[in-house]
Every structure is written in C-alpha cells, then in structure tokens.
Amino acid sequence: MTVRHRGALAAMAAGVAALTVAAVVACGSRPAEDVGAEEAAALASATPAATPTATGDPSVPVNAGTLPAAGTTVPPVGLRIPPIGVTATVDPVGINRRTDEFEVPPSVDRVGWYRYGPGLEAGTGSVVIAGHVDSADQGRGAFFRLRELDRGDTLTVTGADGRERPYRVVAREEYAKTRIPLDRYFARDGSPRLTLITCGGPFDAKTRHYRDNIVVTAVPT
User: Fold this and answer.
1) Measured between alpha carbons, how far is residue 28 from residues 19, 103, 111, 142, 212 in Å?
2) Pairwise CA distance, residues 184 & 21, whole Å
3) 41: which residues sit within 8 A by CB, 6+ positions away?
4) Which segments of the protein form a coiled coil according to its record (predicted)?
5) Does residue 52 fall inside a structural domain?
6) What's the rounded Cα separation, in Å, for the pair 123 and 54?
7) What pLDDT was estimated at residue 192?
8) Helix (H) or strand (E) holding 207
9) Element holding 153 (H helix, E strand)
10) Residue 19 domain flag
C-alpha cells in the first residue's frame, strides 16, 4: 500500500497530524461501474447531530502532530466482510519514516487502519482501512475482491474494546491515483463513515503498480 504526494490536504482536527498525499494505493482488476458517488460525497460534507463518545507508488509527507490522548480512541482490530469472504486482522499504521509511504502491513492477509485519523468511537469523520489486493510473493490479499462490493452489502468491524460494529456499503468508486480526493477520505469531519481502500485498474508491468484506487464507503447501521 503506497501513497504519492500531490499537495497539502486540509489539516485534520486539532492535535492530529495533517496529511499531505496524492494517491493511496494498495493493489485487481477493474470493478463494475461506480455506484453511490453522490452519497459518499454528501457524507463528507454533512454535519451530523452531536453523538456521545467514549470518554495511500509513493511518498507521503506528514506534518508533525500528536495522537489523541490514551484511552480516547478505539482502534479497529478485526474486519469481517462476508459477501467477499474477508476475515482480517487490522493493524494500526502510520507512515514509514524511511520510505515516506502509508505503511500497510507487509502480510497481505492483514489490513491497516490509519491511526492518525478517527477511531471507531468518533461521531464524525472517516475511519480509513487500507490493504493489498495481491502480491507476487504472497498471492491474493485481503482486499483482492473489494471491487465486488455493492451498495447494501454489510460488514463488521471489531474494536479493541471487544465491541462489534456493523456497517452498510453505500458507495464503490474507482479513481486514477492522481485524481483521488484524499481530503474527502482522510477527514475528521462529516458524517461518521468507514473508508476501505485498495488498488485496481490496469497493471503497469514496467512500474509494477496498478493505475487506480478502489474506494468503498460504508456507514454505521
């Protein structure tokens, strides 16, 4: 999973890193036609009612920031997506300081939660989980079939608190990696939502990268 610099995104909420990216990558083939794009955009611009809370070919420059205080964030630790046969461990990830890349777990059967964004307890914003589609060495990854998800499909995210949280898919979109609106998907505002990212589109044998990103948006149910 990699991310290429494209320009500064709007700063995230106070006390959280500001992300500067241009494309989030992970890596299949072309999905069916996009669905739910308008709904996904509306979620990003919506102002949800107050809700009580508990208590990325490559390079991604990240401005200095701090994580939320200990105990205030509920990280996702497990992901189940029955329609495409996914049961995966979720690891907290940030930025690889050596490569400046979004640091998705090296094992393709695991996926990564962007720990500088919202946790599962947040009443606003996008919880981002990204993963590989495949690997020349390891074969199919956890998100190999992500492009098959459709509106109405359901999935479950388990938090570090042991609670299972159900979500419903509302959108599936494909973007060229240079055109993905990362400020929408890496955001701490708007309605609470889950964003799953991997890659797709044509594979460039010379660069060894896929051209596009597949983005699935889901909402709590």
Assistant:
1) 26, 20, 16, 11, 10
2) 12
3) 184
4) none
5) no
6) 10
7) 97
8) none
9) none
10) no
Integer angstrom CA distances of residue 144 from 161, 185, 197: 28, 20, 11
**CA distance linking residue 137 with residue 50, whole number of Å:** 46
Question: What's the CA gap between 36 and 29, in Å, rounded?
Answer: 20
What predicted TM-score, i.e. pTM, was given to this entire model?
A: 0.77
We report the CATH number of the domain holding residue 215 as 2.40.260.10
In the chain, the largest separation of any two C-alpha atoms, in whole Å, equals 50
* b/e code 49-86 from CB counts within 10 Å (16+ = b): eeeeeeebbbbbebeeeeebeeeebbbbbbbebeeeeb
What single-letter amino acid sits at 110?
R
Predicted pLDDT at 103? 82
Q: Is residue 122 part of a domain?
A: yes
Contact (CB, 8 A) for 30 and 49 = no
Residue 148 domain flag: yes
Q: How many residues does the chain have?
A: 221
Number of domains, the chain: 1
Residue 123 belongs to domain spanning: 37-45+73-220
